[in-house]
Amino acid sequence: LFSRQLRVAMSIYKNDNYELYDCEPTIAFMEKVDNLIKAMSSRTPENALRKNADCPMRKAIIDFDQYLRDWEKKANEEKLKKKRNKKKSNVENTDDFAEEFDFPITTSTLTGFKITLGTTLELSKFLYDKCNYNYLMTSRLNQDSFEKFYGIM
Q1: Is 106 helix (H, G, I), strand (E, B) or coil?
Q2: Could you tell me which residues come within 8 angstroms of residue 37 by beta carbon, excluding any fewer than 6 positions away?
Q3: Helices of type H across the chain
Q4: CA-CA distances (angstroms) from residue 39 to 2, 13, 76, 137, 139?
Q5: Closest CA to 125 of 70, 67, 64, 62
Q6: Where are the domains of the chain?
Q7: N-terminal to C-terminal alpha carbon distance within the chain
Q8: d(CA 139, CA 137)
């Protein structure tokens, strides 16, 4: 879904298909997610998370974490702006405003993402500094086995 091939195809066909004319933000998002998936599922030393700041896997994790934080900040600003506008218009409505705001992921999912990304970076720093690791293959840090097990049931 987030593959490079799909992003290239979207770029190629955006001029020929009116539905793809403004797909650059989608392509950028897909690239961020693809880079994060690669960073969080490395199985070889070549693709592992390394200590140096120019490590592409480290950059992908930091970039996505910042992207989530910026997204959350913007969403909260929009929510506050709508709330203020609603008060100014003096429209009577008994619905809870939080239910009206359409944020695509739940607060707990967002928090989970931020914790996972942050702890991955913290764990890697600990392993580099205290245990003399040169790199961290991140594939074992996720819940795939757990999810596969319960997916079978």
Answers
A1: coil
A2: 2
A3: 4-13, 24-40, 56-89, 97-100, 107-131, 144-152
A4: 14, 28, 28, 9, 9
A5: 62
A6: 41-152
A7: 25
A8: 6
Structure token pair of residue 133: 């690791």
Cβ atoms within 10 Å of 9's Cβ, excluding its own: 12
pLDDT tens for each residue of 70-125 = 988 988 888 888 888 877 776 555 444 444 445 678 888 889 889 999 999 999 99
Tokens representing 15 are 């001029």
Q: How far apart are CA 60 and CA 138, in angstroms?
A: 13
Element housing 136 (H / E): strand 135-136
Q: How far apart are CA 76 and CA 79, in angstroms?
A: 5
Place of tokens 């961290």: 136
pTM for this predicted structure: 0.77
CA angle 143, 56, 46 (to 5 degrees): 75
**Burial of residue 138 (number of CB atoms within 10 Å: 0-12, 13-18, 19+):** buried
